[in-house]
């Protein structure tokens, strides 16, 4: 029993102190201002989004999260897809407080499991930008590159023991 509990705690990783502040979402497939407007309107319907600013030239959206709200990155992706486009990159700004991260290891942040890849072992403090590198959050070529850097089965499925795992890099 002790061995089982120890393995679960290793699998779930360490709990970290951090708060998600904002994100920069780059979309692909946009051809005009109307495309950008469709995504902008779709993102604004999410309860945890405070503000969205579109940059048509770079096909990106600066998203500010409501303070204290539970953030769901899969819902951000789904809203972009519902508007008829796809996510090319999602960079998230979080404020960290003495959060130790290690390569190919998981950390729980705001109740979500984040598995860090291609990083040096470090302690995060203050604002830090992390990039979600899961399937459908980055181009296929980049996804395959990151897939080669881990043996974690969760990278392919996005889950571990029924828990959503976000794979990220700094």
What attributes characterize this protein structure?
170 residues; alpha+beta; Alpha-Beta Plaits; ten-stranded mixed β-sheet; 5 helices; 10 strands; 26% helix; disordered N terminus
SSE sequence, one letter per element? HEEHEEHEEEEHHEE
| Envelope shape | globular
Largest sheet: 10 strands, mixed
Sheet-strand content, in percent, reads 35-45%
Return the CATH architecture: 2-Layer Sandwich
Question: Tell me, what is the CATH class?
Answer: Alpha Beta
Distance between the termini: 36 Å
Topology (elements, then pairings):
Layout: H1 2-12, E1 14-16, E2 18-28, H2 33-44, E3 49-55, E4 60-65, H3 73-82, E5 86-101, E6 105-109, E7 112-116, E8 122-132, H4 140-147, H5 154-157, E9 159-160, E10 163-169
Parallel strand pairs: 1-6, 7-10
Antiparallel strand pairs: 2-4, 2-5, 3-4, 5-8, 6-7, 8-10, 9-10
What does this protein look like?
With about 170 residues, this protein is an alpha+beta fold. It has one domain: Alpha-Beta Plaits, CATH 3.30.70.100. The protein has helices at about 1-10, 35-45, 75-80, 140-145, 155, and strands at about 15, 20-30, 50-55, 60-65, 85-100, 105-110, 110-115, 120-130, 160, 165-170. Strands 1, 2, 3, 4, 5, 6, 7, 8, 9 and 10 form a 10-stranded mixed sheet that branches. Strand 3 (about 50-55) and strand 4 form a beta hairpin. Mean pLDDT is about 90; it is low at about 1-15.
């Amino acid at each position: 029993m002790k061995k089982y509990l120890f393995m679960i705690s290793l699998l779930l990783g360490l709990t970290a102190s951090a708060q998600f502040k904002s994100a920069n979402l780059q979309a692909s497939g946009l051809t005009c201002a109307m495309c950008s407007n469709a995504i902008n309107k779709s993102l604004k319907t999410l309860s945890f989004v405070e503000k969205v600013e579109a940059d048509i030239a770079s096909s990106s959206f600066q998203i500010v999260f409501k303070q204290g709200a539970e953030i769901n990155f899969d819902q951000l992706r789904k809203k972009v897809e519902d508007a008829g486009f796809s996510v090319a990159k999602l960079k998230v700004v979080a404020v960290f407080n003495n959060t130790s991260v290690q390569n190919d290891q998981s950390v729980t942040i705001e109740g979500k499991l984040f598995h860090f890849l291609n990083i040096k072992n470090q302690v995060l403090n203050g604002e830090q930008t992390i990039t979600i590198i899961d399937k459908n959050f980055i181009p296929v070529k980049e996804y395959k590159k990151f897939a080669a850097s881990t043996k974690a089965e969760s990278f392919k499925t996005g889950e571990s023991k029924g828990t959503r795992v976000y794979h990220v890099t700094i």
